[in-house]
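Sequence in, structure out. Go.
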Amino acid sequence: MFRIEENGQFRGTVNFLDARLQDGAIQDEHVKDGANIAASKLQHQHRRTYAQASGSTPVAEARVVHTVVGTSGKLLGFRCGCVTAPGAGDSVVFDLLVNGSSVLSGQVTVNNSQSNRELVAGTISNDSLQADDVIEVQVVSVTGTSPKGAFAEVDLEETYA
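Output:
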């Protein structure tokens, strides 16, 4: 075995039987444009946003925000809020659905303890996703007329074949 402790250049082809690189040794600038890296070797993270009109009182509805096109995936986070926070006694209740069923440990309520545009995190109890899963954000109920512009964000990652 030998060790080279200097910079150098090889004019011919070098074949390595086993190469071990330190974590972080290859950064973005080391990968050529058009390097043809397989999608299965990349991390695919998505943030999907659901929003009702900013100046409007929210209405109860469920809306599709994403369909899983990878072979599998994972829900990473769910946050919701209102552009104009609810006043005393008013609230907006949210849920996150996969294929029509809740994946939260409990629905998320935005009420007068939140400020305008403050995000309230939900707790995901089932984070597993499969190909063709349909993700929906649901406004379950609205109490009062003071809240305006209900919105939510869903963070997820997908694995592609």
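Check: Residues 39-159 form a domain with the Jelly Rolls fold (CATH 2.60.120). The radius of gyration is 23 Å.
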